[in-house]
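To whoever is on call:

I kicked off a structure prediction for a single chain this morning and the downstream step that reads the tokens threw a length-mismatch warning. I double-checked the sequence; it's 216 residues and nothing unusual in it as far as I can see. Pasting both halves so you can look.
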Amino acid sequence: MGANLQITEKLENYIKDFSFKLNPIQQEIIDYNKTLGEIKRMQIDPSQCYFLHLIIKVANIKNVLEIGTFTGLSALTISLALPNDGKLIALDKNEETNKIAIDFFKKAKQDHKIQTIIKPAMHSFEELKNEKFDMIFIDADKMNYKSYYENSLQLIKKSGLIIIDNVLWHGEVIDEKNNDKFTENMREFNNFVSEDKRVEQIIFPLGDGMTVCRVL
């Protein structure tokens, strides 16, 4: 039986050399985030950029909601993959990082596809109640994941995709000795989604782990 490879930096570079190339502005965001110290961990991994690009193209996604934007890498990745008439609504409460993200969107000439809403996501769901999305990407504060997920189920189209980042939580979800509130919360969330009959779901070991749910 085959086993998953350990992805070293050298192997990661090899994969990049033989994969679809990132947009220069995506790479610019990655380089900028490297200057931010510890909070750079809030960025998605480049492997997740490739995955999001492919799944949007294959599934003919046109209308997307993002919960958690940071400096804009995931949002820009999604927008670049969307058709010209596609739309992304990006929710984030941080004004400072939103300004940075918007500058990158403009530089990549994608700002016409992206609407940013700067307030806590929980305050935006009521405003969006008449919207229906093909895909929702959740990558925000982890303690609210279940609430984001439940609200997403009200906004997603049938057979739409809900994608959730950080579900492996740095590998801590399998460490029985780790009982901090964030790890416990992620374990409980993963268990909840795995038992949810409203969706079928798969965890992909990309970045910090991504759950992809297809709404039944």
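Update from on-call: the warning came from a stale cache, not from the record. Cleared it. Sanity check on the structure: The chain has a mean pLDDT of 95.
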